[in-house]
Structure formats: C-alpha cells, structure tokens
Design a protein that fits this description.
Length: about 290
C-alpha cells in the first residue's frame, strides 16, 4: 500500500519494545519465583517448558532447521546465555534487590560497545549516549533509592552481563541458518538440560512449597520472558548492531522500578523520574547515532 511503513522496519522496533518491557518485568517475576525455586531449578523448569512451546510453534510455522555444524554453537550459546547468565541473575536476586539487579544488568550495552568497537564503532555520540544511560540507571536505583548492595550479588550480575554480550556476539557470528523460533527453542533446550544436570548440586529443583504465585511467575518467565522475549532478542541481534540493540537493557530498570512502585509499594520520587529521563535521553542518542552511522 502507498505510504505504508515497510514491515522490515517495524519488526525490529516491535522486538526492541518486547525486550525492553518484558525483560524489565522479569526481574520482578524472578523475585516472586524465588520463593519456591532455587536458581538452577528455575533454569531447568523455566526453559524446559519454554523450549517445548517454542519448538512446537516453530514446527507449526514450518521453520527451517539449522545445519548440523550450527548445532554445537546453538548449544554453547544456550548454556552460556540462558543457563549460566540466567542462573547468575537469579542467584544475585537472593543477595540484592530486583531493582539493583536490573540496574547492574544495564551495563550490557557498554560491553557490546567495547567488544564491537573495532568493527562497529559507536562514535562520539554513541558513547555519550552509553554514558548517559549508565548515569541514568545510577540515578534511578542508586544509594538512597533502594536496598543495600551485596558485593557477591553485584559481581554475579557484572559477570552475567559480560558473558551475555560474548554469547550474543557468538550467536551472531556463527549461526546463520534456522528460523528464529527454532534456534531459540534449541538454545532453551540446551539451557534446560544444563539446569537439570546442575540442579541437584545447587539446591534442587524446588526450595520450598510451590505456591500459586511462584507457579504463575514461572509460567510468565517461560512464555513471555523466554518464548517471546528471547526470540525477539535473537531476531534483534541480527537486525541491528549489538550496541544499538542492547540499549533495551537501559529501559529494563525503568520497568522494574515502575512495577516495584505499583505492586510492592516501593518509593517513586523526583530522583527516579530524573533518572528515567536521562536513561531515555541516552537511548535516543545511541539509537540516533546507530541510524546515521
């Protein structure tokens, strides 16, 4: 149709919005699920369910399968991103608040910028936007706005952000075939098997009575946080350059803070509002630089 927006230009923005909003809410869902599921138990259950659903939908749409040589790379990325990184984030939330975990995870775009600086430089405006984004998240959930910070929890999130960037770039480089849903499902399956093997050595599959709230949280993490958002992430990582795509992590804390204020009675003040404004300004600069660069 004349004047219609090309589908190819709209889909990345839809995927970006899904990663920003849904993954911003998963920090809250993880905190709820922790009442019944330990880290590796959560990985096993969450991605076990998600892999079956995602692969089934991929078959429904008759997606192509990746080549045999790509399967080891999918397994590696699945274990690294969804097994190790996810377990680190879940474990960190036993030591720090969900808001602090979301803020620290916002360092992900900086790792992408560093790791791709030679091949896809951000330029001055892009780095300025990255710095603004980091400053914004510090304002948003810094000292005086939420709970204390445990060094072990902080280290776990920082390690997770670095490994997430490495794994995402590995997928982008070595996985060229296969449908988005199928690739995501295979990576989730690898993570589920990884979690199943380690769960008996890391607190088991459940840590207490399985409450309805915890089950609902696991269901949300499996369907929305995994099936939908992770598939969107894989698509986005191949469509936009990594540093630009990774700015969704700057928006995750905004969602986390809003959920905390709405459902947990957490404080929402002028400092948080200023932090959100700075975050959005940083995202805008990175996005603008990436589109013209």
């Amino acid at each position: 149709m004349p004047g219609a927006v090309p589908r190819a230009s709209v889909l990345p923005w839809v995927a970006y919005a899904v990663c920003a909003v849904v993954w911003g809410s998963t920090y809250f869902a993880i905190a709820v699920a922790l009442a019944s599921f330990p880290p590796y138990g959560m990985v096993a259950v969450r991605f076990g369910v998600a892999s079956v659903l995602t692969l089934a939908v991929g078959r429904l749409f008759r997606e192509r399968w990746p080549s045999r040589k790509e399967l080891p790379h999918l397994a590696l990325v699945g274990v690294l991103l969804l097994g190790v990184c996810n377990a680190l984030i879940v474990w960190s939330e036993t030591r720090v608040s969900s808001g602090v975990a979301a803020v620290l995870a916002a360092l992900t775009p900086a790792w992408f910028g560093i790791l791709t600086a030679r091949t896809e430089p951000l330029g001055g405006r892009g780095w300025l936007g990255t710095g603004l984004g980091l400053a914004g998240v510090v304002l948003l959930v810094g000292p005086g706005t939420s709970g204390g910070v445990d060094l072990g929890g902080v280290a776990a999130v920082l390690l997770a952000t670095a490994l997430w960037a490495v794994g995402t770039l590995h997928h982008r480089k070595y996985v060229k075939g296969g449908g988005a849903l199928t690739n995501a499902g295979l990576e989730m399956l690898a993570a589920a098997l990884f979690g199943t093997v380690l769960a008996p050595f890391g607190g088991g599959f459940v840590s207490g009575p399985v409450t309805p709230k915890a089950l609902l949280a696991i269901g949300y993490l499996a369907v929305f946080g995994s099936c939908i958002a992770y598939t969107a992430h894989l698509y986005l990582s191949k469509t936009w350059n990594p540093a630009r795509a990774g700015t969704y992590a700057y928006l995750n804390p905004v969602i986390a803070v809003l959920l905390g204020a709405a459902f947990l009675g957490e404080t929402f003040n002028s400092r948080m509002a200023l932090g959100m404004a700075v975050v959005l300004a940083g995202v805008a600069l990175v996005q603008y630089r990436s589109r013209i660069g």
